[in-house]
Amino acid sequence: MKLDQPPDETEQFSHHWSVEILKTPPLIAPARQFIYPQQIAGEEDALARGALQLMVHPSSGGTFLATCALGFTDPTMPTGVFACPDPREICAVAGGYAYVFDTTQPDYCTHVAMKPVVEVRPLAPQKLLLFVGFHSIIAWGTSGTAWETARLSWEGVRITSVEADTLHGMGWNLLTDREVAFEVDLLTGHHQGGGFSQPPQGQKS
Question: Looking at the DSSP assignment, which residues form a beta bridge with residue 66?
Answer without folding.
Answer: 34, 54
